[in-house]
Amino acid sequence: MGYQGWFACKGDGAPINAWWHWSGANNQVPPSPGNNTIVAWPDMREYTNAYVTGYANLGNGQPATLFSSWDQQVVDTHFRWMRENNIDTAALQRFNPNGAEGPTRDAMAQKVRQAAEANGRKWYIMYDLTDWLNMQSEVKTDWLNKMSAHIASPMYARQNGKPVVGLWGFGFSEPSRPFAPGPCLDVVNWFKAQGCYVMGGVPTHWRQGINDSRPGFIDVYNAYDMISPWMVGRIKNVGEADNHYTNVTVPDQAHCNARGIDYQPCVLPGEVTARHRAHGDFMWRQFYNVIRAGCQGIYISMFDEFNEGNQIAKTAETLATVPTNSGLLALDEDGTPCSSDYYLRLTGDGGRMLKGQIALTPVRPTVPMVVVDPNPNIARGKPTTASSTNPGYPASNAVDGNPGSYWESLNGFPQWIQVDLGSTATIGRVVLKLPPQPAWGTRNQTIQVQGSTNGTTYTNFAGPTAFTFNPATGNMVTINIPSGTARYVRLNFSGNTGWPAAQLAEFEVYGTTVIGENEPPTVPGNLTLTGKTATSVSLSWSASTDNVGVVGYEVRQNGTAVAGPTGTSTTITGLTPATAYSFTVVARDAAGNTSLPSAPLNVTTDAAPNVNLARGKPTAESSHTQNLGSGNAVDGDAGSYWESANNVFPQWIQVDLGAAVTVGRIVLKLPPPSAWQTRTQTLSVQGSTNGSSFSTIVGSAGYVFNPATGNTVTITFAGTSTRYVRLNITGNTGWPAGQLSEFEVYQS
After folding, report:
1. Which residues of 419-438 are buried (b: 16+ CB within 10 A; e: fewer)?
2. Strand 407-408 to strand 384-386: parallel, antiparallel, or no bridges (unpaired)?
3. Model pTM score
């Protein structure tokens, strides 16, 4: 995934000495509602340092604080989250370093390298060429003089044996990236000549050279080893994701396959406060689409992009941890509780599906709320002591949850390490680990397990036995304890065939409370509809029972998990008006077992009273000019517009409502500024249920768009059932093309 690492706070010690990327125009003062660049609030619970902002307190009364990427603990925490969720690689974004940001960005590369190496994650440099006008020479100098030194890192990403470099921004139509094809191709080929594998972050419509892509760049795009089209701002719901799959992803993949280019499409979770996420359904649909298209990799946008709201990093779960005056939303914005790490977990499962570790499925396997581990590692983070310690390898490394760090004693035997669980517990098993890398070759360590309730008198639990640690099986050993009660658990080492000292990466201790428990809860009963609207359904059910204890429920909509309440009622939002749904509920116990589904409840949502059915739906067109595509006519923004090719009538624009609906009113708009002078467009309205056979709904007529009346035209007609609504335009007195700012469709 993309990693910005670009947040700083005044007083954090960073050379930039500013509220970097937190504040707005004035980054010398703390961010506040009027001086802000972010659209989502981070979950701050795991950061050591926190910096007070100008916001009001959080909903729970605590001060509103933010983190600084300059703190190594923050970067370490982020990479630990990547490791814990099996996220492979971070692409460190590197913007033009030749200004005030340069020293901070240089140091951030070293911080990311350190965290990646400590957590066993790959990383690489991705140059973002935005506003870097002298990039053709300066990016080469930066690589040779600074960044190429990092390829010595054992965790620097390599593909086909070559160090990876990302180049993001060539070919985009925005003024901030005004480069001609020639210099761009020169830079791509230069990096390839340096022996690099070059990944290109390219416009969405790179292959066609339209919309967000400048024409004439196809030779640049085809020169990349890997192509990764940008997606932020291009889609915002499942329907748009499916339309993109059909019209863009599949032909993109075919183009790359034919030329031996690796294809790495972008997947994003969606912007929180804009309500794109749909508790994971939006992101999972993208995973499903790009994997079924046959992609070679996936690029997540982004890990820590709180400015665009597309972050997968831990985010505020509820408004209790969001500033009360911020106007920002939390992950439960649609009524479905989501744990702060939900999108990290979802990304991990997307990676598993890409690698074939789980089956390709359109149904996300990841529930929004975390299920409490019924049998946790009770040694994690607890106090440790040891007979001796090799400097730099303290005993605390064995309980930090990171198999890449380890305790090592001084040379010579016997040696011991001990963990204080804090209170007496019944011990069921001990799990011991060494780092999983192949470099840690197979070795036997002779170990005895002892326990004590007072730290003075010890009882033998197991051994001494020679245990084999083999990297082929994860360098892990499990020692079952038939019966043992202890507060202090000690390991005595008397030998190691691989090194003349005791070594341990993880020292895990588990109780016996629910080991092997596999009895599911009873089936939830009496699933009942308690209320509904055009876009929501409220449900309740009878509580389930279980021998361990029910910890929550999973509500499924047409077989897909959509909510994870802990109680016996919930409201499902974001539904489509006048649409039939089937709901079931399953119960989950503390051991992770789930019940059979309840009897289904079929519900049809109410008809929408006055909802624009075309908003955000897929569109098609006869043609468009420049970047004025038909999607502009359904984006809800009266300032953006579709414009057909000039001087060629007739033209048409069409919207797919997703299902046949009885409609009776269409509202058409042009941008309201007076510069859009009065004009008459001659058009007819057609409808179709299958997208092939169209019938006339309203015959051709001239409609006057006048800025004095909002440049709006309303066409009403008898209720007609249709899925596809098309406007055929044969004339325009104000411009030699079809033009439309908003194309709105309403029920009769």
Report:
1. bbbeeebebbbbebbbbbee
2. unpaired
3. 0.57
